[in-house]
Write a structure and sequence with these properties.
Elements: E1 3-5, H1 16-20, E2 26-28, E3 33-35, E4 55-57, H2 67-79
Antiparallel strand pairs: 1-4, 2-3
The chain binds iron/sulfur cluster (2 copies).
One iron/sulfur cluster (SF4) is lined by residues 5, 8-9, 12, 14-17, 32-33, 50, 52, 54-55.
């Protein structure tokens, strides 16, 4: 199991979520952030930090965003080797 970032994250300028993650699971591109399903330990710390309510456990993702489970895995597979980890809150 892992936590998943879904559509409400698109365009988010606040990255409150990344600061609380004990495993540095978050990766980002121009669109949104994604959680590494391999590194996430299901602690749930990030969920209440997201003002957009974009984060769900993968067992509880709303049906309309079900594709985001695979999208998080696919994008992390690209972004991780590219060094696109996000660990500090963006202030822009
Ligand atoms: S706080 Fe929520 S919406 Fe903002 S970057 Fe993090 S997951 Fe995305
Ligand atoms: S559930 Fe915990 S380990 Fe997983 S991304 Fe959120 S804060 Fe990080």
């Amino acid at each position: 199991m892992a936590y998943v970032v879904t559509e409400p994250c698109v365009g988010c300028k606040y990255t409150d979520c990344v600061v609380v993650c004990p495993c540095e699971c978050f990766y980002g591109d121009d669109r949104q952030l994604y959680i590494d399903p391999g590194d996430c330990i299901d602690c749930g710390a990030c969920l209440p930090e997201c003002p957009a309510e974009a984060i769900f456990p993968d067992t509880d993702v709303p049906a309309r965003w079900a594709g985001y489970v695979q999208l998080n895995a696919d994008r992390v597979a690209v972004l991780k080797p590219a060094g696109m980890r996000v660990t500090e809150k963006r202030t822009a």
